[in-house]
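Model it.
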Amino acid sequence: MKVIQNKFDGIKYKAEHLICENYISDERAIWEVIELSKNQMILKEALERSTLLFVLTGKLEIATDSVLKQKVEASKMFLIPIGGNFYGHVLEDTIMLRCSFTRNIALCNKFSIEQLQNYIQPNANMNSSIASLPIHPLLLKELEATRDILNIGLSCIHYQRIKMDMIFIELRGLYCREDLAAMFAPMLGKDDDFKSKVMQVYSHVNTVSELSKVLNMSPSCFKRKFYDSFGTSAKQWMIQKKKVKLLRDIIMSKMSIAELAEKYNFTANYLTSFCKEHFGKAPTELRAECSNEIKRNADKDSSL
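Modeled.
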C-alpha cells in the first residue's frame, strides 16, 4: 500500500492566492495578527470600524479617549468602538488578534449585537474602565488556529468573514448576555453612518460650527445627533480628540515645544497651560515622566 506523505509547511499555491482579488491583508482586512515588542508604544487613531482585540500572549497598558491607563494581560479581549482612539505601552512581548467589523454584524442569525442593549446593567459605569472579558479556553483554541492560518498567508476575505461569523457565534454561546453587553456597550445604540462621516472630516475643521457646516446640518440638529451617537457634546469630543493627539505627540514624537504649539495653533504659554489643565503637568514633565518610566522598566528587566 502506497503511503502519501503530506508536508504541512505553509500555504499551497501561494502565488495564486496573492494575485486573487479576494486576498486582503491590509487595513481593509477583518482579521490581523499584531506582534508587539516590549516597551513599544502603540497608537490607533479614529478607528473606521469597531474592533475587538484578543490578547493571546503578553501584557500591555492601554488607554482610550475616556480611560487613561489600564493593564490588559494574556487571554483577555476588549472592544474599541468606531471613531475611538487607542494607544498604549507594551509591558511584555505581546501577540494580539484584531477583528474589525461594522455595525450590522450579529452574534448569530437569531440575535443581533444591538439586542445586547437590553442587558446593560443600569449602574454600570462605562467610562471608568475598559470592559475586558477573559477569553474562554475553547474560544482561545479557535483564535490560536486563526492566528496560525493567517501567519501562513491564508488571507482570503471569504475565510476571514466565515471565521468572524464563527467567533461571534462562539461569543453568543460561551458568554452570558450581561457580560457581552458590558463589553459591547460603547457601540450600542450608536449611528455608525453618522459617526463615520464625522470621523472623515473632523480633523479638517477647528470648531463645532465648522463641523456642522461641512456635514450640511443645522447647529441644533447636529448637536442633538452628535450627542445621541457619541454620548457627549461635540465641543467636549473635539477637545478630547485634541488632548489625545497632543499627548501622543508629546510622548511619542521628538517635536520641540515650539513645534508642538505651532501644530495645534497654540502659543507656547497656552500649550503649557493646556497641558497642566488637562494632564496635570507641563509638556516637558509629561515627556520626562514617560521616558523615565520606560527606563525604569528596562532597568528592572535587566536586573532579573
